[in-house]
């Protein structure tokens, strides 16, 4: 009232106070009025329902938060998997051999007769006649000191060249003696001189066969690859008589 500066403001102030007193007087007798009691009961019921709805909504919001966290974790896992798949796709080796069941074809003894039949190579893989390619798992299991900087493709390329030497040697041995030229006849004699009891039933070559029939240079890398092939059970050494033979396992 002290803040009223005009009669109009003072009149408005008194009217407001009077309105409050009138409502207070009306409410003072509400406890005796059934309509007011019913209204209050209805309001209480509505408030209870609102509280229940809020409780349910809070529960659902919490469930949604948990589901959202799970979805975020799943999304992160999918991103990691996608990155791994892309990395694998970018680093697929150029050669992934499919190994077939191995079977060994015995080496036929050398015969001078006309009935000497053509020898069939032992099939160890889907591309080589005698040897088999290393699998990725085999290559990765080779100790690092043995591999050095050699790659999976380099090792299997050497396997391919070595198999070429086996193929050429036993192609000559499978020919009839009468059809051989002087060079191949001398080669057959050398092949016979290299045979010992440990080579019976085993396909083998020596270093001279590698240099004659392939472009492979027997440098330190090639010898390391031969060591890897022995380690993985692709070939084995047969020594004796002044020769180092590489036999097919």
Automatic annotation (TrEMBL):
Keyword Coiled coil carried by entry: yes
UniProt-recorded name of the protein: SKA complex subunit 1
Q: Which organism is it from?
A: Biomphalaria glabrata (Bloodfluke planorb)
Q: GO:BP terms for this protein? A: cell division; chromosome segregation; mitotic cell cycle; regulation of microtubule polymerization or depolymerization
> Which InterPro entries would you find in this protein's record?
SKA1 (IPR009829), SKA1_MBD_sf (IPR042031)
Q: Which family does it belong to?
A: Belongs to the SKA1 family.
- Residues annotated as coiled-coil are 54-91
Q: Which UniProt keywords apply?
A: Coiled coil
One cellular component (GO) term of this entry: spindle microtubule
Gene3D superfamilies named among the record's database cross-references: 6.10.250.1370, Ska1 microtubule binding domain-like
Q: Source gene?
A: 106066953
Q: Name one Pfam family in it.
A: SKA1
- One Gene Ontology term of the molecular function aspect: microtubule binding
């Amino acid at each position: 009232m002290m803040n009223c500066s005009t009669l109009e403001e003072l009149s408005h102030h008194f009217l407001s106070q009077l309105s409050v007193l009138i409502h207070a007087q009306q409410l003072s007798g509400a406890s005796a009025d059934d309509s007011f009691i019913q209204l209050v009961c209805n309001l209480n019921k509505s408030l209870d329902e609102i509280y229940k709805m809020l409780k349910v909504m809070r529960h659902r919001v919490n469930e949604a938060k948990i589901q959202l966290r799970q979805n975020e974790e799943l999304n992160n896992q999918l991103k990691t998997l996608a990155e791994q798949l892309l990395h694998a796709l970018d680093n697929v080796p150029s050669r992934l051999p499919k190994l077939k069941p191995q079977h060994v074809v015995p080496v036929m003894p050398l015969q001078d007769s006309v009935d000497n039949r053509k020898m069939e190579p032992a099939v160890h893989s889907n591309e080589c006649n005698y040897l088999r390619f290393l699998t990725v798992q085999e290559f990765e299991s080779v100790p690092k000191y043995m591999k050095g900087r050699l790659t999976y493709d380099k090792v299997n390329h050497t396997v391919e060249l070595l198999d070429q030497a086996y193929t050429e040697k036993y192609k000559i041995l499978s020919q009839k003696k009468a059809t051989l030229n002087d060079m191949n006849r001398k080669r057959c004699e050398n092949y016979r001189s290299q045979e010992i009891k440990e080579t019976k039933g085993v396909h083998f070559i020596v270093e001279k066969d590698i240099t004659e029939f392939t472009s492979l240079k027997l440098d330190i890398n090639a010898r390391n690859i031969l060591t890897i092939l022995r380690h993985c059970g692709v070939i084995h050494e047969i020594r004796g008589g002044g020769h180092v033979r590489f036999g097919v396992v």
